Amino acid sequence: MNQTVHDLVAGRQEACSLRELDDQLTDVMAARQVQEFIQGDRLAVLVQRAQVLCDVENAEERLLLAAVLGRLAAVARNRSHEVFEGFEAYMESPPASLVVLQDGDEKAYAAMSLAHLGAPRPPWLADYVIREAFYLDAAENARKVLLGMLRDHSVDYLGVLNGLAQGFDSLELEVPDARLRRVKRILEAWKEVSQDHFWSLEANPGESLTRVVKAVLHNVTGAKEEALANDVCDLLFELLLRVVQLRFSYALESATYAPLAAMKAHFGTRLWTHLRSHSLVKPRVLSCLREACLVLARQGQTDNAMLDAMKVMYATRTSMGNDLKRHFEGHHELDSEVSEWWTSGGTKRANNGKKEKSLKSDEDMLIGQLLLEGEAARRPLDNVRTNLLPLIEEFGNDPVVVASLRKGLGGFVELSTILRQLCRLRRLESSGLEGETITYSRTRHEMVGGHQSGVTEVRVVRDQVVQKLYGRERVVVKALVESI
Among 217, 255, 328, 405, whose CB has the most other CB atoms within 10 angstroms? Predict the structure, then answer.
C-alpha cells in the first residue's frame, strides 16, 4: 500500500471539501484498498463528513454529494442503506445538471444516488430525470440509470410513452446529424433498460406512440446519415412491437400501427423506401400485421385502416396481396369474399351483409342437406349392393324380396345420380373435410352441443356444403364439428 493510501485508510488526512473527498475515494478505489477505507465505523464517518462538507444552498454541491454517496454505495454493497440515510433532506429541491460533473463515472454515481430517493419522491424528480436523460451527450451509464428511473416510476406504458415524448420534444441541438446520433443513443439505452420490464396497458397507446414518433422525427429533420436513420427507424419499430408484446389484442387494432404512416410521411418516399428495404425489424412488424389480417378475416371482418397500415410497409399492392395469399393458404374456414377483399388490397368488394343470408333455409341449403344425407347413405347401400345382394340371390328362397331389394338399390343409385347433377347445376359441392381437424369459425361451423367460447381446434363430424359461383365461395350448409 503506498503512503498516501495508507494515510487515507488510517484516517490521518481529512478532506476539506467534497471534491477533495471524492478524489480520495477515487485514489483508494484505484489502489484496490477501498474496503479498508470504509470498514467498520469508517463508512458512517465518511458519510457524515460528506454531509458536513456539502453546502445545502449550492445546487452543484448537492449534486457532488450525490456523486460521492453513489460512489460509496457502489463499494459498500449490502451496507448501501447506511450511505443514503438522511440523503432525502439534501434533495428537497433539484440539484444542478449532471453535465457539471467531471466525467461519466461521476454522473453515473450521482444518478444512482437519485434513484435511491424513496417514496414520497420529490416533486421535481420526474421532470429532472427526463431532462437529464435526454440532455446528456455521451454518459451512457448515467443515461441508463435515469431511463431506468423513468421505467420504474411509470405506472403504465402510457406514462412511459408520455415521458419519452416529453424528452424528445425538449431536445435542442442545432446540428441535425448530432440530434440524430443523440436520438439513437437514447433509444438504444431505453431498449436495453426496458426489454425485460412489463407495464399494465389498459387502453390502446397508438396516439401516444405516434406522438413519440413525431417528436423523434422532428429531430431527424435535415440529417444526412442514412445508416443512422435506418437504425433509428428500427428502434421506433421496436417501440411499436413492444405494444403488441404487452397486450397482443392491440395487434388487431389499426391505431397501433398509426405511427407507420407518420414515419412514411416524414421521411418521404425515397428515404422511406431505403429504410424499409434495409430494416432488420420490418419482418417482425409485417408478421404482426399479416397475423392481424388473418384473425380479422377469420372473424369475417374487413378493416380499411388496417389495410392502409399494410400498404405503408409494401412497395406495391401486388406484393402485399401475394404475401397475404401465402399467409392465408390452408385456412379453409375463411369466407372467400372476405379473403379476396384482403388479398386484393380492398379492390374487390366484400358483401358482408350477404353472408348471413347465405346461411338461411333457402333452396340451396335444402339441396345441400340432401346431398350430405345422400352421400352418407350411399356408402352403406353400395356395400349392400356389392357384398350382401349376391348372397341373398344365391341362398334366398323368395324371388319377390330379391327383386324388390334390387329395384330399391337401383332406384337409389338413379336418385343419387340425379341429385349430383342437380348439385352441379347449382354449383354445390361438399368440402371433403369430414374427419379432419380444423380451426373453429362460428360463422362456418356448427358445434355439437352448441357454441363453446374459447375453442380453437375442432374435428369435423359432418362435412359442409359450399356453393362456388364466379370464383367465389359461400357456405350453404355449415360443417358439424366437435371440440377436441
Answer: 217
User: Exposed/middle/buried for 451, CB within 10 Å: 0-12, 13-18, 19+?
Assistant: exposed
For the cut 50, the answer to whether the pLDDT of residue 9 exceeds it is: no
**Can you list the alpha helix ranges (DSSP code H) found in 195-257?**
206-220, 226-246
Q: What is the C-alpha separation between 45 and 62, in angstroms, rounded? A: 18
Quote the CA–CA distance of 62 and 71 in Å, as a whole number: 14
What letter represents residue 168's amino acid?
A: F
Q: What is the spatial distance between Cα 227 and Cα 337, in angstroms, rounded to a whole number?
A: 43
Q: Exposed, middle or buried: residue 298 (CB in 10 Å: 0-12, 13-18, 19+)?
A: buried
For the stretch 359-363, contacts whose Cβ atoms lie closer than 8 Å and that sit 24 or more positions apart, written own/partner, are 359/443, 359/475, 359/476, 359/478
List, in order, residues 6 or more apart from 459 with CB less than 8 Å away: 435, 436, 437, 438, 481, 482, 483, 484
Other beta carbons within 10 Å of 59: 15
Sort residue 86 into left (φ over 0), alpha (ψ -120 to 50) or beta. Answer: left
Cell digits of residue 339: 379473403
Whether the model clears a pTM of 0.70, i.e. scores above it, the answer is: no
User: For residue 385, is pLDDT > 80?
Assistant: no
| Count of beta carbons in the 10 Å neighbourhood of residue 166 | 18
Closest CA to 302 of 259, 337, 257, 260: 337
Share above pLDDT 90 across residues of the chain, in percent, rounded to a whole number? 30
Helix axes 206-220, 157-169, angle to 10 degrees: 20
Express as a percent the part of the chain with pLDDT over 70.
92
* Res. 127: pLDDT tops 90: yes
482 φ, ψ (degrees, to nearest 5): -135, 145
pLDDT band at 1 (very low <50, low <70, confident <90, very high): very low
